[in-house]
Design goal:
Blueprint: E1 3-8, H1 12-22, E2 28-34, H2 37-47, E3 51-55, H3 63-73, E4 78-83, H4 91-97, E5 101-104, H5 109-120, H6 128-141, H7 161-171, H8 176-183, H9 187-201, H10 206-215
Parallel strand pairs: 1-2, 1-3, 3-4, 4-5
């Protein structure tokens, strides 16, 4: 199965470099390029790519607005934000807009290609430094009770006790293998739990499951429960 990629960046050389890198892979194919957010939204609608590599800072419609419009229009298109700095000021807003992962522009080619495949498979890409940035923003933006006024925890009531345990560990940044070791479960069992959690909560992927744990107050920044 070929993963179709849309590249969005206002730098022509960056787009050319990404295309050259991606096109060396048999399972990846660039189906379009955009130099600004408005064109990205239009191409995403017309071409329905699997992955959008999105530059966050562009003139006119920036990557943040474009990400929100693309993800709200389709549950199938996944956006990976390309950032120059790991602690980009827009990381939190990009996650809220629907981004499924973050990659540094200076990342190694093999890591970028692996990241595309990870997100295309339905998982999410969140580095430890980006996770720390998100936790800082959660701490700053949540209410005194830990729950923003526009977020409810109703979805938690649909989870089993085991699924709630798995969700907490997802929120703490653990991978499936680490969760399996912590809970003495098989990794395949953890994967099944994760799929059910995402479905029950109605969230796009693992990144947004992390967001959910903090926005509902299930976890608090800097506090571990296991």
């Amino acid at each position: 199965m070929t993963i179709e990629v849309l590249i969005v960046d206002d730098d022509t050389l960056v787009r050319a470099g990404l295309r050259m890198m991606i096109e060396t892979q048999d399972d990846l194919h660039v189906i379009g390029e955009a130099a600004n957010g408005e064109d990205a939204v239009s191409l995403a609608r017309d071409l329905s790519p699997d992955i959008v590599l999105m530059d966050i800072r562009m003139p006119g419609t920036d990557g943040l607005e474009a990400t929100g419009r693309i993800t709200s229009a389709s549950d199938d298109v996944r956006v990976i934000i390309l950032t120059t700095f790991e602690l980009d000021d827009y990381v939190y807003e990009a996650v809220r807009a629907g981004a499924s992962g973050f990659l540094l522009k200076r990342t190694r080619p093999e890591d970028l290609l692996a990241g595309i495949r990870i997100v295309a498979s339905g998982d999410a890409l969140l580095s430890p430094s980006v996770t720390r940035r998100l936790m800082h923003e959660f701490a700053r933006t949540t209410t005194h009770s830990g729950v923003p006024t526009d977020v409810t925890s109703d979805g938690l009531d649909r989870l089993t006790d085991r699924e709630r345990e798995v969700l907490i560990l997802i929120g703490q940044g653990l991978a499936n293998r680490e969760i399996a070791q912590r809970l003495y479960l098989g990794e395949s069992t953890v994967k099944t739990h994760v799929k059910r959690i995402l479905m029950k909560l109605g969230v796009r992927d693992r990144v947004h499951a992390v967001v959910y744990t903090y926005e509902t107050g299930l976890l608090e920044p800097g506090r571990r429960q296991f």
